Amino acid sequence: MQASKTVLVIGANGGIGRESCLALLRHGWQVRALVRALPPENQQQGITWIKGDAMSAADVLSAAQGVAAIVHAVNPPGYRDWDKLVLPMMDNTIEAARANHARVVLPGTIYNYGPDAFPLLREDSPQHPQTRKGEIRVEMERHLADAATSGVRSLILRCGDFIGPHAGNTWFSQGLVKAGSEVKTMQYPGDYALGHAWAYLPDVAETIALLLEREQELANFERFHFGGFWLDGHAMLEAVRRSAGKPQIAAGYFPWWMTAALAPFMVTLRELRKMRYLWKSPAQLDDRKLVAFLGGRPYTPLDEALRTTLTAIGCMPSQRTAAHVA
């Protein structure tokens, strides 16, 4: 890793971007954050905030001057215009990394896999996605692989669905429970008997920091799978009950029928329905490579992770009002 130990995080106002900034700060990095909207001064947390647009090659290149790594954590809001925005932003990051001999870090997903790769997803499993968003994810990774042949190093950490205090609109906070409301029923999107992969955002960010500490040991095009929590619906329900301190929380089901009725009018719901296949089959991330490299599993205990998440999103009785207002 370069002696400067300076990192640029693109998309630092998002969940993975914010947690990455905090984890890298803890590990002694000088952190720059490229965002379209600067936070208030009392929330800048020792980070150098730079106002700019990931769609502007000049903005990204300017913000990246002298950095050793670029965390590409930016995503267009919702699902709108993904096909027009995502790949140009990726290419801007790649060119900025090339100019500074920096490594690109991409927090990945399992959307780029189809059922032919289930049930155990390895780093080299075939990628035949079922959705346009998944196809774009495959293309993002292909751009990184192509750039590696000309010397641009990259690191992809693929994860399951996010939970965490700053995770934003996720399956957990908008599906299983409702942010800002005390949990009375957990609405599970699939068969309770099927397992599902969950990733706690602070753990993902900490893993990124740990991997960058050993950058010289990584391949030019490196991929790891973040196993996180592998839970079926029954295990998740019991964990939510324990974490919320409410054993009476009922087992329910996500109202897919409602999304079908509203999907013609809402692009987000149309895209959400296309992801339903991930709730019909088990798709577990094989993390043996990551665990062997780090020498252990970098995962927070499940109940602690869920308690922190439920408190932050306003689902605990004593915290609900304040968190919902915030």
Automatic annotation (TrEMBL):
A matching Pfam family: Epimerase
Entry-linked Gene3D superfamilies: NAD(P)-binding Rossmann-like Domain
Domain NAD-dependent epimerase/dehydratase positions: 7-222
Origin: domain of life: Bacteria
PANTHER family in UniProt: NAD(P)-BINDING DOMAIN-CONTAINING PROTEIN-RELATED, PROTEIN YEEZ
Protein name: NAD(P)H-binding protein
